[in-house]
Amino acid sequence: MIAVITGDIINSQQADTEVWITRLKNLLENWGSAPNTWEIYRGDEFQFKCNIDDVFWRFLAIKSLIKSQENLDVRIAIGIGEENFSSDKITESNGTAYVHSGRLLNDLKNDGHTVSIKTSNVSVDRDLNILLKWSSKDFDNWTMATAEIIHEMIMNKEITQEDLAKKFAISQSSVSQRLKRANYELIVETNQYFRKKISEL
């Protein structure tokens, strides 16, 4: 099984495309090469595949990157399933993971939520989507400053609060406050729960 993330940028028309698209490309390149592992298409939509164990952390890395830019947000549909056909271009690959993810993004555009997951297990979907709806109440309200800190923590697990304070030219206590406001420790626990639930599939 694999995980496929299909997403689109919210308010992309009101932002400098060159800035967010360059940063998103640089992020996705950390995890694989285009167009086999990821692709940005139709201006502000993208698709990316990864290991199922990594998908929650990858989703949060993308979310925090986009939220760290003014007025931007991202809708993300996570599909878990098989890859029956692997093309040189991810957008031409196929399987249940791709179908789940692609259809789910259309549903998200209609229901107003910013993240959802679809697997072949109704019970797992129910549990994880309730979790995502609750946690998104936090994620969707991250300030740019909070999103920047969260992104650095996700991308560099060895980074310390002192390192972050130097990077952002703020005090270590300010870093600590931002992480507390963002419920960072709860995010780490949520990632562990997410991985456990997906391992049951």
From TrEMBL:
The lineage of its organism: Bacteria, Pseudomonadati, Bacteroidota, Flavobacteriia, Flavobacteriales. This is SatD family (SatD). One of its GO terms (molecular function) is DNA binding. Pfam families: SatD (PF16264). It comes from the Bacteria. InterPro entries: Lambda_DNA-bd_dom_sf, SatD. Transmembrane segments: none annotated.
